[in-house]
Amino acid sequence: LVAEARRLGRLDLLVNNASVLGPSPQPNLADYPLDVLAEVYRVNVAAPLGLVQEALELLAESGGTVLNITSDAAVEGYEGWGGYGSSKAALEQLSNVLAAEEPEVRVYWFDPGDMRTAMHQEAFPGEDISDRPEPASVVPALRALLGADLPSGRYRAADVLPAASR
């Protein structure tokens, strides 16, 4: 992907949205298999950093943006969410440090809130999560964030939605 962006001559936005939940149902940290936790961290933390490292020069040249999708589980202590939540907390701190180290690149870590996704359903096997909003409902908040001239930082969808869509 980065090679193609380089061939095209610029990169304005890198979105790190891929993520894994880990075991379902999610175990308490005392019972969390360490090899599985390492895989959660590989996907949720190391892979986004690897993409940033590959793309950083192009992003800096264009004054581009890194958008890391995070979760409220990064900042709240939910029972059973220790593996996923701690990986998202690591992604948030990685974003925070990246923003300090690379001021020519805007870095956002974005919490979309609860959504009706397959991964969220995996977190609650057998439960009805149909009361949660569809992922498309967050698009206006993402567009507002990316269209604004906001500094690097953590943003929640609920806080950046245009007033008209609240």
Blueprint (SSEs and pairs):
Blueprint: H1 2-8, E1 13-16, H2 34-62, E2 65-69, H3 82-101, E3 106-111, H4 118-123, H5 139-147, E4 153-156, H6 157-160
Parallel strand pairs: 1-2, 2-3, 3-4
Describe the structure.
Helix content is 45%, strand content 11%. It is globular. It is of the alpha/beta class and 166 residues long. It starts with a helix and ends in a 6-residue tail after the last helix. The protein is built from six helices and four strands, in the order αβαβαβααβα.
Task: Give a quick rundown of the structure.
The chain has 166 residues and is α/β, with parallel strands linked by helices. The protein has helices at 2-8, 34-62, 82-101, 118-123, 139-147, 157-160, and strands spanning 13-16, 65-69, 106-111, 153-156. The longest helix is centred in the N-terminal third of the chain and has 29 residues, at 34-62.
List keywords for this structure.
166 residues; alpha/beta; four-stranded parallel beta sheet; 6 helices; 4 strands
Derived from helix and strand composition plus strand pairing, the structural class reads alpha/beta
Approximately how much helix is present in the residues? Answer: 40-55%
Q: Count the helices. How many?
A: 6
Distance between the termini: 35 Å
Order of helices and strands: HEHEHEHHEH
Order of strands, widest sheet: 1-2-3-4
> Number of DSSP strands?
4
| Low-pLDDT regions | none
- What does the overall shape look like? globular
Radius of gyration: 17 Å
Strand content: 5-15%
Mean pLDDT score, rounded? Answer: 91
